[in-house]
Amino acid sequence: MAIKDLPTDECLLPGSAACPGCPATIALRLVLKALGRNTIIVIPACCTAVIESLYPYTSFDVPVMNIAFEAAAAGASGVEAALRQQGKKDTTVLAWAGDGGTYDIGIQALSGAIERQTNFIYICYNNQIYSNTGIQRSGATPYAAWTTTTVGGKTEFRKEMGEIIQAHHPPYAAQACISYPEDLYNKVKKAKGIRGPKYIEILAPCPPGWRFGMEKTVEMGALAVETGAWALYEYENEIMTFNGKSKLLLEQKIERKPIEEWIRYQGRFSHLFKPTKDVKRIKALDDHTEEVWKRYRACYL
Predict the structure, then answer these.
(1) pLDDT tens digit sequence for 38-96
(2) What is the value of pTM for the model shown?
(3) 52-66, 121-135, 145-159: segment of lowest average pLDDT
(4) Domain with 215 in it: what CATH number?
(5) Long-range pairs for 267-276: beta carbons < 8 A, 24 or more residues apart
(6) Is residue 1's pLDDT more than 80?
(7) DSSP character for 216?
């Protein structure tokens, strides 16, 4: 699927309350192109709950249910059950949550929904922080990153949510990034055609939260993939496959760029470079990234 061949119908309308350069709106626009209008979205507390605009107006041209922070998967389970009871089999139920509502606050509802084999798509748009509530650290925040609750840099490495999801053995799970729209579109399209619980996580570089210029959103996502800080993959029927540049990194057909080439452009890591370069913590982040890829190669090559 080339960008020029994407559906022209728009379910994400002008006039939203998104920040300039917002990755969540880039992602949701592509997702809705893949799913079509016969979709119901369940949204917990997150940036998107604000982006959709204030009642009685909306910039989303599909039905939306807003629900409590911890309850995206539970709410989506209820919507799916109601549709099933009515005999409506063609409507897609989409839970759309941030990393705070997925990695942390909503993980119990998500785990339960997958265990029950709920027929829905759960998408986490991961900006690696609680961006909507003031840029606090989440389980997805990288090591050494500044947030308002880790002013000296986070001391823990991020949670591997993809591996947690795979431990539930869903029929389909994937990681994508807003910088690779065709890849994202194809993964969502594939998920739509599979019954049961589907999980897709989208890396969503956040200009105000990561502290970079709004014109660099796509570049930050691409650098995350090229440095190995984020992997593009699919997990389908117990088989793991890597996509695009991540496949080339896995097979060592291209070299992984140093993690410094990704973090140096983000203000949330600026304390690692001034007043003097923090070689130890930069190396720790790069070494951790390399260990993740060694694990990938040991498991999937």
Answers:
(1) 999 999 999 999 999 888 889 999 999 999 999 999 999 999 999 999 999 999 999 99
(2) 0.97
(3) 52-66
(4) 3.40.50.970
(5) 267/146, 267/210, 267/211, 267/212, 268/145, 268/146, 268/147, 268/209, 268/210, 268/211, 269/144, 269/145, 269/146, 269/153, 270/146, 270/211, 271/146, 271/152, 271/153, 272/144, 272/153
(6) no
(7) G
Count: domains in the chain: 1
**Domain carrying residue 158:** 3-300
Distance (Å, rounded) from C-alpha 130 to C-alpha 111?
21
Largest CA distance in the chain: 64
Judged by average pLDDT, the poorest of 52-66, 146-160, 182-196 is 52-66
35 alpha carbon, distance to own chain's centre: 17
| Cβ atoms of residues 135 and 162 within 8 Å | no
C-alpha dist (Å) from residue 198 to 105, 172, 175, 195: 19, 5, 11, 8
Mean of the pLDDT values across residues 218-231? 98
Kindly compute the dihedral angle of the four CA atoms of residues 12, 15, 20, 25, in this order, to the nearest 10 degrees.
Answer: -10
- Cβ-Cβ contacts under 8 Å for 29 (sequence gap 6 or more): 10, 11, 12
Q: What is the pLDDT of residue 19?
A: 95
> What contacts 232, CB < 8 A, 6 or more positions away?
175, 176, 177, 180, 183, 225, 242, 243, 244, 245, 246, 247
- DSSP output for 133-171: TTSEE-TTPPTT--BTTBTT---SPPP-HHHHHHTT--S
137 forms bridges with which residues in the sheet?
129
pLDDT of 54 reads 83
How many C-beta atoms lie closer than 10 Å to residue 233's C-beta? 20
Cα(83)–Cα(67) distance, integer angstroms: 18
For Cα atoms 172, 196, 238, give the angle at the middle one, nearest 5 degrees.
35
